[in-house]
Design a protein that fits this description.
The complex is a heterodimer of chains A (about 270) and B (about 375). Chain A has 9 helices and 2 strands; from the N terminus they run H-H-H-H-H-H-E-E-H-H-H. Chain A has about 270 residues and is mostly helical. Chain A has one domain. In chain A, helix 1 crosses helix 6, helix 3 packs across helix 6 and helix 7 packs across helix 8. Chain B folds into 2 domains: about 200 residues, Lipoprotein localisation LolA/LolB/LppX (outer membrane lipoprotein receptor (LolB), chain A); about 100 residues, no CATH class. In chain B, about 25% of the residues lie in helices and about 35% in strands. Chain B has 8 helices and 20 strands. The chains are: A mainly alpha (about 270), B alpha+beta (about 375). The interface between A and B is medium-sized, with 31 and 37 residues.
Chain lengths: ~270, ~375
């Protein structure tokens, strides 16, 4: 069933259209930077963007930072929100459930397909970012300077970039879990997507308020930018481990809720 | 339909229990009792003052509540006392440590060695060398709970100290010590210092003004490890492509102080005795003790207008004839501009009434040219 769901997801033109659209903003930003030679002022703009003019090998990180706050969560919410509600809206959900595999296995298959989409999307953004960065900018793949001013070898830079890609992928699992849960509550994919995005917008808003500081450590978007900490020296694991643990809690709870709801709901469409 | 509802109930109950347990965990951990120990206040203060050699590493957060007037020259100093500052620290000793101010997209690292500091600014790709001076502008390392706690308790009298129980901070048991300044002129109501029971290291410092329940400054460790940091971590060599510069801010401030004409300051103002401070220019008068301090400095005419405008922009500014004064939390500032003499500034952790009293007791620092 998992293979079926994966094939279905990645054979859809819409999936690849979303991935392509997701890569457009970083490519556009890179082209504008090359044409104008105007990088953001120090401390402004997405992380690492001010550094790419001198080292294009950092562009995968800048690309992830560009799509992380908005575009990437929207893409994940669209796909995850469609996973169950889309079947219900199309009238195919009850036929899927007619198979002897059971609802839990279907939910797991949908979940794995969403996880695969998240992983593929993040890797594609990073890969396109690397191609664009090393093509358009002067690349210094031999070494780099950490955020803390120490030298990083090419191997250290590569390992940390891979870890950053993985961390961003994990950060998106919480979005996927929200959208998947909402997808089991409604027959409207748009409603499920909007529900997940409403959670994220609220989380981002609360994070900026001092009055919400007591609950800030529990907001789903709180640790998204912690991948920057992988490029400090020594690596600052504090927020990274908290980010991973927080995503694990959200994913665990929301999947349990999705399971409790989906395995017991009346499916009529 | 009914059978589905019956099947759903236990599943949702499981989810509900999991959510309840997870939601309650922080409160449960926070409510774990901490056993207080009958350590006398004076003994605890002595342990704090003896902790300068304790080596540690950690992560600290400082939240400033002071709305200091912002000028173009010293905005970074004002930010330190008004914003939230997140710091990583590796402390091998007073002359060998590193403090990184961490921001979401960058950091500023201050590396101290025997001869001075290197300051690395990632966003500007700049490394700045500053020589060690006895008097320097406030910097992030001054806000570390350990450093600030020792400084604020250094001159506290035994009669000003009381014990205030115990709490858990950064996963460590900490004993509370409260210093309440005895001087009537003080604008600081109390300074609460929470001290790591095992090492004597202050792990949280909360400064409260006389007129507000919101801390003027709250700095605490979020993580603390009592181990010797690696020397390679505190050392710094500027990257090959970094811009190198030499710090001038401290020297400019000192040079400005040296240019001040000496003033015959009275031995006491507003009930505060005159004091000396290593490195302080002789043209600046310093008064007070402990956390109740007052500085008096003549201000060049060309700077006085800008300063007066900045002070007057505060909604709480009091303009009274030739003077303008404000209170930024427990910090009071007063610019006096007599018609026939040089302007001068009074600033310190004293009440506005004490500032007025002190201004009336000071000699005029020079006739207007």
């Amino acid at each position: 069933m998992i293979a079926v769901e994966l094939r279905k997801l990645f054979r859809r033109p819409r999936t690849w259209a979303i991935v392509a659209v997701l890569n457009a903003p970083p490519v556009l930003v890179a082209v504008l930077l090359v044409l104008t030679d105007l990088a953001p002022r120090p401390g402004e703009g997405p992380p690492f963007l001010s550094a790419v003019l001198t080292n294009g090998a950092l562009y995968p990180l800048a690309a992830l930072a560009i799509v992380l706050p908005l575009f990437l969560p929207i893409a994940v919410a669209v796909v995850a929100g469609d996973s169950v509600a889309g079947e219900a809206q199309a009238g195919t959900l009850r036929y899927l459930l007619a198979r002897p595999a059971g609802r839990t296995r279907l939910l797991v298959a949908k979940l794995v397909a969403v996880l695969a989409f998240v992983l593929v999307t993040v890797v594609v953004v990073a890969a396109v970012g690397y191609l664009v960065g090393t093509t358009l900018f002067e690349a210094r793949p031999a070494a780099g300077t950490s955020v803390s001013g120490t030298s990083l070898t090419a191997e250290q830079l590569a390992v940390r970039t891979v870890l950053a890609v993985g961390y961003v992928g994990v950060s998106m699992l919480g979005v996927a879990a929200f959208a998947l849960f909402f997808s089991t509550l409604t027959d409207s994919p748009l409603g499920a997507t909007m529900g997940a995005l409403a959670v994220l917008v609220t989380s981002s808003l609360l994070f900026t308020l001092d009055a919400a500081s007591p609950i800030a450590p529990y907001l789903p978007t709180r640790y998204w930018l912690a991948f920057v900490d992988l490029f400090r020296d020594p690596i600052l694991w504090r927020d990274i481990t908290r980010g991973l643990a927080l995503q694990a809690v959200y994913v665990g709870v929301l999947l349990a809720a999705a399971w409790a709801n989906f395995t017991t709901k009346d499916v009529t469409s | 339909m009914a059978s589905r509802a019956r099947a759903a109930a236990p599943r949702w109950a499981v989810v509900g229990v999991v959510v309840a347990v997870l939601a309650a965990l922080p409160a449960i951990v926070g409510a774990l009792p901490v056993t207080d120990e009958p350590v006398p206040a004076a003994e605890l203060r002595a342990a704090v003052l003896a902790s300068a050699g304790v080596q540690y590493s950690g992560y600290a957060e400082s939240a400033g509540g002071l709305a200091l007037p912002v000028t173009d020259q010293l905005d970074s100093v004002a930010d330190l006392f008004s914003d939230r500052t997140e710091m990583r620290v590796w402390w091998r000793g007073p002359d060998d440590h590193r403090v990184d101010v961490v921001t979401p997209a960058g950091e500023t690292g201050i590396h101290r060695d025997a001869r001075g500091t290197w300051t690395w600014e990632y966003e500007r790709a700049t490394a700045t060398r500053a020589a060690a001076t006895p008097l320097a502008l406030p910097a992030p390392p001054d806000l570390l709970p350990a450093t600030l706690g020792r400084r604020l308790l250094a001159e506290a009298a035994e009669g000003e100290l009381t014990r205030i129980g115990a709490r858990r901070i950064a996963g460590r048991d900490a004993l509370g010590l409260r210093a309440s300044p005895a001087e009537p002129a003080s604008a600081v109501r109390q300074v609460d210092v929470w001290v790591d029971r095992a090492s004597g290291l202050p792990v949280q410092v909360v400064v409260l003004g006389e007129t507000s329940e919101v801390p003027a400054l709250d700095t605490r460790f979020l993580d603390l490890e009592l181990a010797v940091p690696d020397a390679a971590t505190t050392a710094f060599a500027p990257p090959a492509d970094a811009r190198l510069r030499t710090a001038e801010e401290a020297e400019i401030v000192l040079e400005a102080g040296r240019r001040l004409a000496p003033v015959r300051f009275p031995p006491t103002v507003a009930g505060l005795p005159r004091r000396t401070l290593e490195g302080a220019p002789p043209g600046i008068g310093l008064y007070g003790r402990g956390v109740t301090l007052l500085a008096v400095a003549p201000v060049p005419w060309r700077l006085a207008d800008g300063l007066r405008r900045t002070l007057a922009q505060s909604p709480d500014a009091v303009t009274d004839g030739t003077s303008t004064r404000i209170a930024a939390g427990p910090v009071g500032l007063m610019l006096v501009d007599p018609r026939d003499a040089e302007p001068y500034l009074l600033v310190g952790t004293v009440t506005l009434d004490a500032l007025v009293e002190a201004a009336g007791q000071l000699p005029l620092p020079g006739r207007r040219r």
